[in-house]
Design brief:
single chain, Rossmann fold, 3 domains, nine-stranded mixed beta sheet, 13 helices
């Protein structure tokens, strides 16, 4: 059991007696909404400390607002509402506009979260400079860095614009004062966890402070029709830090992802009230700043057009965007009692399943072999559509034989050894054909497949057919090494994979 944090007050008998008799007895967690009949120090649902408070105010749970006020504007038929004020305005960064659904909507509040050093501040500084270059007044509020540090970064990425105003403030009232004075067309706050209000108890970054700061910024954005972009921190598990209500209050939640040792950065929208949530933006982070990658597939394909043992290409779908990725595998003998299974960019559980299918269905001797599987360019492949490419790469490395030239493999491997269809097969093949690949292996049960012109597609239903179509178990190889193939206990016309 985890210990109670030191900053959580302990309720004593004297404190309990100090409460009035008619005080409400309902308690609710301010983080997740969990309710309890009595006060507890730790939420029983989200396990957060110090978030359980009385649910109702004075009056035993009666509604506080009972008097009616005259409406500021009469209700109108929905067809008469002007939609031009809600049109998205492009930011000048195509990859960001793709994720946002066309650009920033006036009055919208965008929360951009990501790990430290992933490039959030660099991207937003570039967006602010582009907006200022287009004639708009932009206010950039930094609470994590000094104004001099931001100035140095702006000079490095070419973001020195007269219309870009910079303020290093951590007080909420001062930030709102800057907004009143400048009247910006775009507000960037970096970050919401560093700004605090002296009207609310707690340190900056706490649940109460983050909720108050977010509510004030959202109110300013809606009343002025001013788009606001807020930078948010993340926890160690990758979720947005702070109260869960923060993600519900804002209009758009974007997650910035990237490996610290790779230049590739991916931007995803986990919530978007103005556009889709299945789009992905790709960026290249370098010393001169961050730029969009309209064609990121070239980063992930190195030697696929020049076959090498242990390599195979697949095409994944990041949202609705097809991206080619090269999978590399290395199978090496070992004398250790427990062979290693190491992955980089590949889901380890999916690799374990593929290896188990190869051992059980084909008696491939992998028990005494170390298996290493990785992707090229720092990309991460987690969808089941890459199973067939992983399997062919492992088989190719085990045989020390390259697959067919210009081959792409798409399909999910089942536990019975069957190849299952995947979604978006036509889009995947179109991306592979655009990159110059002319041979593809797809599941036999794929429906409504559109084959690009000049591409030869082999439909396979099981692993033996896939290995045959990849050129890893041809008749020539059987004649050349007849002792390496075992033909017993298999149907006619199907040969087992060679063993070493």
């Amino acid at each position: 059991m985890s210990e109670r944090p030191a900053n959580v007050p302990r309720v004593t008998m004297s404190a309990a007696k100090a409460r009035p008799r008619n005080a409400p007895r309902g308690y609710r967690c301010t983080e997740c909404g969990w309710t309890a009949a009595k006060w507890v120090g730790r939420c029983g649902e989200c396990q957060a400390w110090g978030t359980v408070a009385e649910d109702a105010g004075p009056g035993g749970g009666a509604p506080r607002t009972v008097a009616a006020r005259p409406a500021g504007a009469p209700a109108r038929p929905i067809a008469e509402i002007d939609v031009e004020t809600a049109r998205a305005r492009p930011t000048g960064v195509d990859e960001l506009d793709r994720v946002l659904g066309g650009g920033l909507v006036p009055g919208a509040v965008v929360l951009m979260a990501g790990e430290p050093g992933v490039g959030k501040s660099t991207l937003l500084l570039d967006v602010a400079a582009r907006a200022a270059r287009g004639g708009r007044r932009v206010l950039y509020v930094t609470g994590e860095e000094s104004a001099g540090q931001v100035r140095l970064r702006a000079g490095r990425i070419g973001a020195l614009e007269p219309g870009l105003l910079l303020a290093d403030e951590t007080d909420l009232a001062t930030v709102l004062g800057h907004v009143e004075q400048v009247e910006p067309d775009l507000l960037v706050v970096d970050s919401v966890q560093t700004v605090a209000s002296d009207q609310v108890e707690g340190a900056a970054g706490g649940i109460t402070q983050v909720r108050e700061v977010a509510a004030a910024l959202i109110a300013a954005a809606k009343s002025r029709g001013m788009p606001v972009v807020i930078v948010g921190h993340v926890t160690k598990d990758g979720s947005v830090a702070g109260p869960r209500t923060l993600e519900h209050l804002v209009d758009v939640v974007c997650q910035f992802e990237g490996d610290r040792h790779s230049r590739l950065r991916l931007l995803r929208a986990t919530k978007n009230r103005f556009g889709p949530t299945d789009e992905v933006g790709c960026f290249d982070l370098s010393e001169k700043g961050i730029v969009g990658l309209p064609d990121p597939s070239g980063l992930f394909v190195l030697a696929a057009l020049h076959p090498t043992p242990g390599t195979c290409l697949t095409v994944t779908l990041e949202g609705r965007r097809p991206m080619a990725c090269e999978v590399q595998a290395l199978v090496a003998p070992t004398g250790a009692p427990n062979p290693r299974r190491t992955t980089s960019g590949i889901d380890g559980s999916r690799l374990a399943m593929v290896l188990a299918v190869l051992q059980r269905r084909f008696r491939l001797p992998l028990a005494g072999q170390d298996v290493y599987v990785s992707t090229v360019g720092g990309s991460r492949v987690v969808e089941p559509a890459s199973d067939l490419a992983v399997m062919l790469a492992v088989v190719s490395s085990h045989l020390d034989r390259p697959p067919a030239r210009g081959l792409v493999a798409i399909g999910e491997v089942g536990l019975a050894g069957e190849i299952r269809p995947v979604a978006g097969a036509s889009r995947r093949l179109a991306e592979a054909a655009r990159l110059g690949f002319r041979r593809a292996i797809v599941p036999a049960a794929t429906d409504e497949l559109v084959v690009p012109e000049g591409m030869h597609v082999a439909r396979v239903a099981d692993l033996p057919s896939a290995v045959q179509a990849a050129g890893l178990a041809t008749d020539e190889s059987r004649d050349e090494h007849p002792s390496r193939f075992v033909r017993d206990e298999l149907p006619d016309g199907v040969s087992r994979l060679p063993t070493r």
